[in-house]
Fold this protein.
Amino acid sequence: MAFASLRRLAGAALVCAAALAAAPALAVTAPQPDRTVDMAKVLAPGPLPELSVGSPNGIPVVEYGSLTCPHCAVFSRETFPQLKKEYIDTGKVRFIFREFARNTLDVAGFVLARCLGDDKTFAADELLFAEQDKWAFADKPLEPLIEAMRPTGMTQAQATECLKNQKLADGIVAITKKATDEIHLTGTPTFVIDGKVYGGELTIDQLRAILDPLVKK
């Protein structure tokens, strides 16, 4: 009797395991925003040309990021490629990256990226995120930062000259100040989608939960 009972229990366990395996994954609930803002104000032109990818008719997704922010780098390396594949390349989303300088090293990195030309800046920022460990936390970060820009074709002399561009530096600082004043941004990354502000790194599942209802409207 004891052996038969064990067999029945084992059989029931197998049935339960099979049912769980076959069940659809639980849907991720969209995160609650920190606050709401006027999206028209957020999308108003700033002091420097917008860094954006995707269809102009897509749902605007604005990320405020810092080049020295580890969570921003993780988002750039791990989450953004999937977001690009599912929403940007398909015309559903227009992704806008806004520079948020937390320190002078951020300003230097953003200025170097801008010096390449507006059409190459977004890719340069992605490169610096990918190479973040090699320059952002070094004792003397300027040289490794310039070295990280080498794949773009920027020479040492060009980088040195670029870093003297006060107009670009002032523009980066102005973008940062505008974000602080208008959306009360305090940390990076921060995302603004459909007038809602989400502080902190978002996973692709969380982004799907936020975006799918918007793109289906």
Summary: The domain at 30-215 is CATH 3.40.30.10 (Glutaredoxin).
